[in-house]
Write a structure and sequence with these properties.
Mean pLDDT of chain A: 77
Largest sheet of chain A: 6 strands, mixed
CATH superfamily of chain A: P-loop containing nucleotide triphosphate hydrolases
Structural class of chain A: alpha/beta
Number of helices of chain B: 1
Mean pLDDT of chain B: 78
Number of strands of chain A: 6
CATH topology of chain A: Rossmann fold
Strand order of the largest sheet of chain B: 4-5-9-8-7-6
Order of helices and strands of chain B: EHEEEEEEEEE
Strand order of the largest sheet of chain A: 2-3-1-4-5-6
Number of strands of chain B: 10
CATH topology of chain B: Metal Binding Protein, Guanine Nucleotide Exchange Factor, Chain A
Number of domains of chain A: 1
Low-confidence stretches of chain A: 1-8, 38-50, 204-217
Structural class of chain B: mainly beta
Largest sheet of chain B: 6 strands, antiparallel
Distance between the termini of chain B: 26 Å
Helix content of chain A: 10-25%
Helix content of chain B: under 10%
Radius of gyration of chain A: 17 Å
Number of domains of chain B: 1
Low-confidence stretches of chain B: 1-18
Radius of gyration of chain B: 15 Å
CATH architecture of chain B: Beta Complex
Oligomer: heterodimer
Distance between the termini of chain A: 34 Å
Chain lengths: ~220, ~150
């Protein structure tokens, strides 16, 4: 069945990108990750997540090209600020999430930018600010206007979008925009060597993702 | 809502036409899920709930359940008594590289244990459909009976 979720499987992968989701607890990062799916057949409450998902490997089609993404979710870690440089290392795209109904999560973005600047391995890393839970607009609980979000993004030189993981508004666009931008920024990924950039060893030590032509297979 | 593409209930021959085939149906219909020469998966492997593509054909190898990497898989439902899946699958599919997957989710390492990570569907989050044992860093295993096959 042809759909965005099931592209022709024989097509070559153009590139592999590492994306991070960061932002305060409760902004809906995990929901965004779950909702970033082209064809969800299940309602979220039908799915019982007993153990939190840490990261996903996911194929996405952007402009007729196939990209393989590893998308990392900080859920559960950010409260303790134990994110390490290894989490940031090698990431080409960062999705900074705040909750439009919680002003503080928006103001904290500044701290997340500081952390990102400290640990990020490339100055060119693509950033998008995502104002999540924009479905809360109608119920009058919005604390951050779209204008404020846009202005901040402009000041930080990043992309901006409002999303709702609940209604799926903008969710796919947020990821696609980041992928598109990374694809347009060859310095971020063309130096990648080896067969599986983005891969990491899961037992602490990260794999060399910026190796100098040494095949790691 | 019928979420699972149930291809055939009675006619094993029909199980090989269109849609996705469960492990049980494939076995009953004597479909060769394992490529005899290479011991790799003969068909694309999909999530049994939302059809998300997990592994392309030919990329995973059959891994017998009695091997050193074997680990019981918890029930795939919250109530273990209603789980239709055995704790120990008949066999598993193994890949040595996490980037071999098309779509897959990794849980956080289970704390207090041996740091096993379980694998889930990247699109609908159903799982576990397999696991990654910390003590075997290069093994990523999918339970053969918890996924469906694009038998063509």
């Amino acid at each position: 069945m042809p759909s965005p979720a099931s592209p022709p499987t024989d097509q070559e992968i153009t590139a592999t990108f590492k994306l991070l989701l960061i932002g305060d607890s409760g902004t809906g990062k995990s929901s965004l990750l779950l909702r970033f799916t082209d064809d969800t057949w299940l309602q979220p409450d039908e799915v019982s997540a007993t153990i939190g998902v840490d990261f996903k490997v996911k194929i996405v089609n952007v402009e007729d090209k196939r990209y393989k993404l590893t998308i990392w979710d900080t859920a559960g870690q950010e409260r303790f600020r134990t994110l390490t440089s290894s989490y940031y290392r090698g990431a080409q795209g960062v999705i900074l999430v705040y909750d439009v109904s919680n002003r503080q999560t928006f103001e904290h973005l500044q701290l997340w930018f500081t952390e990102l600047d400290t640990y990020s391995s490339s100055r060119d890393v693509i950033k998008i600010i995502v104002g999540n839970k924009c479905d809360k607009d109608t119920s009058g609980v919005r604390e951050v206007s779209r204008k404020d979000g846009e202005a901040f993004a402009r000041r930080m030189g990043t992309l901006f979008i409002e999303t709702s993981a609940k209604t799926k508004t903008g969710v796919r666009d947020a990821f696609v925009e980041v992928v598109r931008k990374i694809a347009e920024t060859p310095s971020l990924w063309q130096k990648q060597q080896g067969p599986r950039p983005g891969a990491v060893l899961l037992n602490g030590e990260e794999e060399e993702v910026e190796s100098s032509g040494v095949c790691s297979c | 809502m019928d979420m699972i593409t149930d291809i055939s209930t009675a006619n094993p021959a029909a199980a090989a036409v269109g849609g996705l085939t469960s492990y049980a149906k494939a076995t009953k219909a004597a479909v060769q899920l394992v490529q005899p020469q290479t011991l790799t998966n003969s068909y694309d492997i999909h999530c049994s709930m939302c059809r998300s593509l997990v592994l392309k054909r030919g990329v995973a190898k059959k891994q017998p359940s009695d091997s050193a990497v074997q680990l019981p898989l918890p029930a795939a439902t919250q109530d273990p008594s209603t789980s239709t899946y055995p704790l120990v699958p008949g066999y598993l599919w193994v890949v040595n590289d996490m980037m071999a997957f098309e779509n897959v989710g990794f849980t956080k390492a289970v704390p207090g244990g041996d740091d096993t990570r379980y694998l889930s569907c990247a699109d609908c989050d159903i799982g576990p459909i397999g696991y990654h044992p910390a003590r075997v860093p290069k093994a990523f295993l999918i339970a053969a009976d918890r996924v469906r096959y694009n038998v063509v």
